[in-house]
Backbone:
């Protein structure tokens, strides 16, 4: 069913939060709010969101590279029917400040943890897409007091290259990569890549369904490129995600966790192809805790391509693992 509300009207109550002196954006939606969407709500305040009366586990949504809160516009309300749901714009992305820092998974984990300490302070479900899912996993390992479970959509594994490439070849590969991630190369690339027509083509590669690449989606992804410091942040972000040590080895972390974990993968994912990523190996390393759902006709961002299927998969998993407290 088509939703005619603008995306800003479908992502809950947006607020700005100062983190380490940088402005960051987040949103939240409570079960009552999920049934009363409509007006755009943007409050410049650090007041704590009013806690929901529901006794279900809260959820925090973390977007992928180049995305933002808006990428969850088709998921927030369905998940908030019975859970308080938060979504963050990670530092450097979306409406959050394009800070002059060295970006890394540990930095974003710190952002998520400090947000949790400030506003929530009870165990949550972390759900992420792409690098957002890697942040979920790293946060679960670093802060077990925060994370009750994780949902990881299209999970990248930084250790894959180290395992696949001979050690003697790595220096040559790194030298070539350092050339291509220099600001001299990346700044002109940013000018090109931030154009809506180019964004549309890039998303068309990431998505399996052309009809899912809408004008609204292009607006969400291309809009932040006009922010102050966006070009500089793009260079730093590109360098961060290209670093083989940007995050933990997935299997190493997974086998040591005892929380419920849900993996969701699009069978037509061209960014992290299942035939290369072999997501079943993650289930095998911790079969008691890890579940895998593979979706037909879905690419790298199934939460946006086929939201009904992803929402239902998450809700089913939640009902099996996180019954409401009486």
Residues:
């Amino acid at each position: 069913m088509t939703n005619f509300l603008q995306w800003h009207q479908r992502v809950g109550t947006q607020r700005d939060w100062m983190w380490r002196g940088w402005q960051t954006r987040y949103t939240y939606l409570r079960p009552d709010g999920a049934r009363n969407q409509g007006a755009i709500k943007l409050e410049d305040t650090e007041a704590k969101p009013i806690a929901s009366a529901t006794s279900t586990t809260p959820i925090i949504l973390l977007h992928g590279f180049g995305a933002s809160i808006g990428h969850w516009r088709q998921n927030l309300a369905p998940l908030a029917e019975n859970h308080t749901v938060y979504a963050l714009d990670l530092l450097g992305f979306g409406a959050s400040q394009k800070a002059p820092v060295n970006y890394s998974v540990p930095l974003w984990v710190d952002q998520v943890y400090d947000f949790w300490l400030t506003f929530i302070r009870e165990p949550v479900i972390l759900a992420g897409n792409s690098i957002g899912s890697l942040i979920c996993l790293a946060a679960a390992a670093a802060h077990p007091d925060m994370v009750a479970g994780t949902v990881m959509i299209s999970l990248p594994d930084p250790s894959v290259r180290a395992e696949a490439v001979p050690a003697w070849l790595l220096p040559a590969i790194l030298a070539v990569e350092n050339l291509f991630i220099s600001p001299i190369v990346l700044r002109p690339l940013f000018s090109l890549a931030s154009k809506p027509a180019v964004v549309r083509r890039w998303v068309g590669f990431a998505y399996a369904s052309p009809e899912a690449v809408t004008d609204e989606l292009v607006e969400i992804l291309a809009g932040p490129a006009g922010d102050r410091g966006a070009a500089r942040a793009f260079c730093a972000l590109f360098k961060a995600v290209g670093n083989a040590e940007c995050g933990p080895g997935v299997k190493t972390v997974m086998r040591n966790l005892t929380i419920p974990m849900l993996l969701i993968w699009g069978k037509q994912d061209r960014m992290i192809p299942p035939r290369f990523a072999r997501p079943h190996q993650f289930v095998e390393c911790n079969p008691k805790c890890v579940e895998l759902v593979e979706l037909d006709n879905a690419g790298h961002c199934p939460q946006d391509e086929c939201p009904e299927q992803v929402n239902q998969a998450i809700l089913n998993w939640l009902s099996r693992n996180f019954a409401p407290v009486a």
User: Anything to note?
Assistant: Residues 49 and 119 are 7 Å apart (CA to CA). The chain has one domain: 7-321. The mean pLDDT is 83.
